[in-house]
Structure formats: C-alpha cells, structure tokens
Specification:
Keywords: 2Fe-2S, Iron, Iron-sulfur, Metal-binding, Molybdenum, Oxidoreductase. There is one protein chain. This protein has 758 residues and is α+β, with helices and mostly antiparallel strands. Among the domains are: 190 residues, Aldehyde Oxidoreductase, domain 4 (2-Layer Sandwich), CATH 3.30.365; 138 residues, Aldehyde oxidase/xanthine dehydrogenase, molybdopterin binding domain (Aldehyde Oxidoreductase, domain 4, 2-Layer Sandwich). It has 19 helices and 30 strands. The structure holds ligand MTE, hypoxanthine (HPA) and dioxothiomolybdenum(VI) ion.
Length: 758
C-alpha cells in the first residue's frame, strides 16, 4: 500500500503548522536569546524594543504565572532565563507584536547586561569539574578486570563522535489560540503532544485539562521535537495566556539552528581484550556525553548508550560507565537512535583498533563475536529470535563479501591516488522505550453511521508513514477498504497521556491499541450480524458478512446502520501496554525490550587521495524487518536512516567556538547529505524472519535501527585511508570530513584537532 500522504505531499497540499489559516487578531512572537553562553544577568533594557510601533508586550520570567520550569526528567530548565544564562541563544525575553517582522526587529533592540561566567564546551572538562546532570551509571556483566588477565591481546583507545543537527524541513513552532474560561488550544509541531500539554500547564499554573494540543503532521522531527517542541509551545501559550490573543511563532532556520539542542556528542575511552581466536573476552569503556546546559532527555539517551554498548556482540565480561556532562551548549536531545549509535560507535572503534594492531580484518573479529540465540545481553535480557548471524550470513553470501573484498584489494594494488575501503556494520537495536511506563498507547475508533471510519491514536505523523500503517491496521482488522478510513490529527482531548512518537515504537504501541479497538467493534458488529442472519458462524470479509464459507447479502453499510438503529455503541477506545518488559535500575538488569531488530550492512567507499574527497559507493544491507506490513514505507525508512547515519559519520560537522557560539549556524556552513551524497547503490534485502509477537502484525519497528548502518561508512573510509597510508594513526574521531581525510592521508601521527577561530 502506498503512503497515504503521497497525494497531498506532491501537490503541496499537506498542512504543516505554518499552513494553518490565521485566526483574526493573531500576534507574532520572537525570542530574545542570550548573546553569551554563560553569565549572570545584571539588567535588561527593553525600552527601545517596547517603543517600536506594533510591539504589544515583552514578556520575561516575571510574567510567568506558574512555574518557570520545563525540565521533563529533571527540573533544571527554565522557560525564560531570570538569574543566569547557560547557553548562547538561551531565551531571556519574548517579544509579542502585531507582525512577525516587527517582533523580530524588536528582539534586536533589546540589550542585556550580563556578567560573563566561564564557558565549558568540553564534556571531559565538565566531568572533571563535577558538572554531572545525574550520577554516573555503570552497566556490567561478568568481571571485566579479571578477564583482561586471561586475554591474549589488549588494546586501549579513545573514540569521539560528533553531534548532529536534526534539520527537520519544518522548523520548530507553535500557535496558541485562546478559548473560553482561560482554556487554550495549541497547534504544535511536536512529537509529544502530551509533553507539550504538561509543559504548558506547568508554566501557566493550570490543569492539563485546560490545554488542548493538536498536531496534524510534522515536516520531520527525528527526535528533535520529542521534548524540544515544549519550549516554543510554552512561550506562545504564555503570551496567549497574558494577552488573551492568538499568538504564533515559527522559527527561522538560523534561530532554530542556534537555539535548539542536537544529537549528543560523545567522547569515550575504551579497552578491549581478545583471545587468540579473536573472541572478545573483556570490554570496558567510559562514555562522556555532552548534555548541554540542561538535562532534557539526556539521562534517557545515556541509558540507551549503555544498553547498546555491545552493539550486536556477545561480550561475557563488560563494564561500561557513562557520564552525562553539563556544558554551556543548547541542551542536546533525542536524535534518531537515541544514544544507541554513540554507544555502538565506541565498540566498533575498539574492534577496528584491535584489527589494525593485530593486522587482521575487522570482519573476522566482528564475525567471531556475533550474538547468538540464548546469549544474555549485559543487562540480563536473553536474545530471543536473534537474527544477528542470519543477517550477516545472508549479506555476506547475497552480496558476495569475499569478492567485494577482493575487488577492494585489487583496486588498491592497481591505483595509487584512489583507494577503496570496505567495512561491515552489523546492528542490533532494542525496541521499547527504556522507561517501562512509556510503553503504552491508546486508540479511539468511531464507526460513523454511513459506514465510514474515524481513527485517532497517539501517533504523530512526521514523514515516517505511521498514518499509513494505522490505516492498514484498521482496514485489516475491520476488513474494510482503506478508503473508508480517516486518520485524525493527534489531539490530546481524543487521546490523553500519549507517549511521544519516538523509540521507533509508535506503530507497535498505537497499532496494537488500534487493533484492540477494532476487535472490540468487530465483536459487537458480529453480534448484530448473528441476530440479523440467525446464524452462529459469522465473519466480516471485505465489507461483507459471511455465514460459514458463504457471503450473505448483508454488507458493511447495512450492518453499521442496523447496529446503529439497534443502539449498539459504534465507538471504542482501547488501551495497550507492552507485556513482559521490566527493568531494575538498582542492579541494572531486566528485560527492557519487547524485542530486538538486527541487520548487517556492507559499505564500500572510494577516497580521492589527492583531494581527500570521497564517495560512498554502496551500502548493501540484509535487514530483519520481521514480516513487513508495508515494504514501501519500510524501505523508505531504511534508506532515509542510512543516509542520515552516513551524514552523521562523514560530513555533518557541528562547530562551536570556545565562547560556546555555534559557528556552523547556517546551511552554508553545515552540510547534510543531499541527493548527490546518496550512495549510487543502496540495496536493502528484507530477510525472511518470523518477526515478533510484540510487533504489530509481526512487522518490526524500523524508524531508527538502520541509521546505525551509517557507522560502516566511517570505518570503510578509514580503511581506504589506511590503504593509502598504512602508518596513518588517525584518531577515532567522527565525522570523517574530507578535511580530516586529507590530513590523515599525509600524516604519520595524530591529526591535531584544528583550532576553531571565533
Ligand atoms: N522518518 C521521517 N520521515 N521523519 C522523521 O522525523 N523520525 C525518526 C524515524 N523516522 C523520522 C523518521 C525517529 S527519531 C523515530 S523514533 C521514528 O521515526 C518514530 O516513528 P515510528 O515510531 O513510527 O517509527
Ligand atoms: N527512545 C526514545 N525516546 C525516549 C526513550 C527511548 O528509549 N525513552 C524516553 N524517551
Ligand atoms: Mo526518535 S530519537 O526516538 O524521536
């Protein structure tokens, strides 16, 4: 089934926040953000801005009627700065004006007198200063220290991975409309309608019931709007609350780049121990996460880095400690993979280091340590339905890995100024929110008297195709044509207490709730059919009631009408909570994931050794989609994730100067993959697997896992560089930009980190 949004997308008719019709009397907001990354506010001069004609009001922390606080996990994030500013661009005041242009001009007229405080932008430095968001966490199994004694080889090193800008096409924004009795309806570009509702209620000192959040769709979120949308929504809601007028704010791209948090950069130390047969016996690591100025989702992201520290390898003795470090950058946040990629990069770097030192291929170490059915993860869960070896074997044979390796070797023998590199990237990703209570969802289904169907769930459509999958679930469960079904905007008055659309779990959780609702309705309809047809064995097939194996003359429309006239309830609200998951953080053991997703990618690159430029020539994947319910959507998700992962690992280079100011603050200085960066060969094979009972229709979650194939591009490039310059001792420091490639091609020693000028 095609994506149901294709039609309005290609015609430009899909409605995003900024496309909503403007209500009479709408005002426009703009943030005045901190001009320094850290300091104590002495005074604010608002006079010039206030005097600009068209400015209606300038709001500061003093105007907040409720709590000046939007921190979700930890209350450490104020809505508007009052005492100190903690990052460059931190909102200090909100200008509200008659037009967008006036609001923006007025914001430039505000002056702040701020006493500077020391700026920390390095997580290791923050850690040394004791600036931790939460106490460090350690996941361990076996006895790593003791096991090193039994190892034949031990290698140590450091691995750094950079941040990543979400670059959703639709920037952050919100539009608040005052209703009667102080109630507010708010349109938000958010992955988490309930998170927005909670933040707004808290800031305004109101009950959540007075705040309605409505989301039609997002032009992408990629994690950046899981909690990142709360701030903008709370700001416009504050203005609407104070002025009783509609207030809208849609960020310009450069504001969004400057003021919003990104993927967490990590810097890590590792130690890996192997036996002669290349089995990993022991692995230890310390991960330093750059959380930015406040907690936001950092502790949860940190947790997932720990869960995925072993990637898809069985490591009997492992100890990994992770530190969430507070720096003076915008608060880093969820980003596709949610800390998993950062944890996986470190073990892959450790394996590459071992391979390079031993003079063996990394593939041999990877292959020798793949997780098997029944192996325990370091957090206690036992691998069940483990497809790690099946994916590896399929990819290696389907794409002829030995032949690909021979081609690389042959090419490198014959070419001096161009070198090829190959890397294999197997993945394993756990599906479920790592907070158990978040693994719940609800669906509300109305069968209208004319036989059409309205479906509401907590899922937010952000391009990932969840609405298409919800149509498929309802169509299959009710046995009606998809054309009968409408997916409603996500709205907190129809579906309350939603978990964000995140963790790749949205179609599983909401789909299962929808399935339950449809089953309950079907049961009721079958009761009506039984009475009407005087038969016991009735079923609905393709909009017709069947008796035994024969179609009756009772069709869907008549059945619905009959049920309605008999006063049978044609609406159902159902609840789903993932069974079987549990986790005990006091011992860091449990069964946190409903299931895991596996796969293997073969990645090939070519480096131009004169220029340092490169191409990713192919990504060839065997992926475990389970029983994919929509191969078009799933393939699109895998392709998009792979390209986004390659971008993170190769070209997306976030630069802050020592004063904490973002230098890569525009699309001229921050490069993301475009259509020309997409590997010319991007093969994705759907491995035949059983799927999981916990996946909707046994179709496994797909949103995030394939992003981690992009890590293979980093190691393939590294292999190409080393083919040119075997003594190049380049650090494990992603992204592998062409500049870094060029330097490492001609360096024997460590490539120095270039000094960044302000
Ligand atoms: N695909 C598109 N087109 N746009 C997005 O913003 N977000 C990703 C992924 N795929 C995203 C996307 C992220 S971070 C997640 S967690 C999942 O979609 C969320 O949706 P799902 O749970 O329905 O897979
Ligand atoms: N993934 C994504 N988002 C989340 C998670 C998670 O595991 N936990 C809390 N928010
Ligand atoms: Mo995705 S990072 O869980 O929104």
């Amino acid at each position: 089934m095609q994506n149901i949004d294709s039609f309005t997308h290609v015609r430009g008719e899909s409605l995003y926040l900024d496309d909503l019709p403007i209500v009479n009397g709408t005002l426009y907001a703009c943030v005045f953000g901190s001009p320094v990354a850290h300091g104590r506010i002495r005074s604010l001069d608002l006079a010039d801005a206030r005097n600009l004609p068209g400015v209606v009001r300038i709001l500061t922390a003093r105007d907040i009627p409720g709590e000046n606080q939007i921190g979700g996990i930890i209350p450490d994030e104020v809505l508007l700065a009052d005492q100190t500013v903690d990052f460059w661009g931190m909102p200090i005041a909100l200008v509200v004006a008659e037009t967008d242009e006036i609001a923006r001009r007025a914001a430039t007229l505000i002056r702040a007198d701020i006493d500077p405080l020391p700026v920390v932008t390095d997580p290791r430095e923050a850690c040394a200063l004791g600036q931790l968001i939460v106490p460090p966490r350690t996941f361990q199994t076996g006895d790593a220290e003791a096991a090193f004694a039994d190892c034949d080889y031990i290698f140590e090193g450091r691995a750094d991975s950079g941040g990543q800008e979400h670059l959703y096409l639709e920037t952050q924004g919100a539009y608040a409309i005052p209703l009667e009795n102080g109630n507010i309806r708010l349109f938000s570009s958010t992955q988490g309608p309930t998170a927005v509702q909670r933040a707004v209620a808290r800031v305004l000192g109101l009950g959540m019931h007075k705040i309605e959040i409505d989301v039609t769709r997002l032009g992408g979120g990629f994690g950046g709007k899981e909690d990142g949308a709360n701030l903008w929504a709370a700001l416009v809601a504050l203005a609407t609350h104070c002025l009783r007028r509609p207030v809208k704010y849609v960020l310009h791209r450069m504001e969004d780049l400057r003021m919003t948090g990104k993927r967490h950069p990590y810097t890590s130390d590792f130690k890996i121990g192997l036996t002669k047969d290349l089995k990993i016996r022991a692995y230890t690591a310390s991960l330093y996460q750059d959380a930015g100025a406040s907690a936001d989702l950092s502790p949860a992201v940190l947790e997932r880095s720990l869960f995925h520290a072993n990637n898809t390898y069985f490591i009997p003795n492992l100890r990994v400690t992770a530190y969430s470090c507070r720096t003076n950058l915008p608060s880093n946040t969820a980003f596709r993979g949610f800390g998993g990629p950062q944890g996986m990069f470190v073990i892959e770097a450790a394996i590459a280091k071992a391979a390079e030192e031993l003079g063996v291929s990394a593939l041999d170490i990877q292959r020798a340590n793949l997780l098997r059915e029944g192996d325990a993860f370091h957090y206690g869960q036992v691998a069940d339905g483990c497809e790690a070896e099946a994916c590896w074997t399929d990819a290696a044979t389907r794409y002829d890995l030995p032949e690909l390796q021979r081609e690389v070797d042959e090419f490198n023998r014959q070419n001096k100024l161009k070198k090829k590199g190959l890397a294999v990237m197997p993945i394993c990703f756990g599906i479920s929110f790592t907070k158990k209570w978040m693994n719940q969802a609800r669906a509300l289904v109305h069968l209208y008297a004319d036989g059409s169907v309205g479906v509401s769930t907590g899922a937010v459509e952000m391009g990932q195709g969840v609405n298409t999958k919800m149509v498929q679930v309802a169509a299959r469960c009710l046995s009606v044509r998809p054309e009968r079904i409408k997916i409603e905007p996500t709205n907190t008055t129809r579906i309350a207490n939603t978990s964000p659309t995140a963790a790749s779990a949205t179609s599983d959780l909401n789909g299962k709730a929808l399935q339950l609702a449809c089953q309950a309705l079907t049961e009721r309809l079958l009761g009506v059919a039984r009475a009407r047809l005087q038969a016991e064995e009735v079923s609905i097939r393709n909009e017709v009631v069947w008796v035994g194996n024969k179609p009756s003359d009772l069709g869907w429309n008549d059945l619905i009408l009959e049920a309605y006239q008999q006063r049978v309830c044609l609406s159902e609200h159902a609840h789903y909570a993932t069974p079987g998951i549990h986790y005990d953080p006091t011992v860091e053991k449990g069964h946190p994931f409903a299931y895991h997703v596996y796969g293997t990618a073969l990645v090939g690159t070519t480096v131009d050794c004169l220029r340092g430029t490169y191409t990713v020539d192919y990504v060839r994947v065997t992926h475990d989609f389970g029983q994919s319910m929509n191969t078009i959507v799933d393939r699109g998700q895998a392709e998009g994730a792979i390209v986004q992962g390659i971008g993170w690992m190769t070209m997306e280079d976030l630069r802050y100067n020592a004063d904490g100011r973002l230098l890569s603050n525009a699309l001229s200085t921050y490069k993301i993959p475009d259509i020309y960066s997409v590997p010319p060969v991007l093969d994705i094979h759907f491995l035949e697997t059983a799927g999981s009972d916990y996946a909707i229709f046994r179709s496994k979650a797909v949103g995030e896992p394939p992003l981690m194939y992009g890590i293979g591009a980093y190691f393939a490039l590294r292999n190409a560089v080393r083919a040119f310059n075997p003594s190049s001792n380049l650090p494990f420091d992603a992204p592998m930009t062409p500049e870094k490639v060029l330097l490492s091609l001609y360096a024997d020693a460590l490539v120095p980190t270039p000094e960044v000028a302000s």
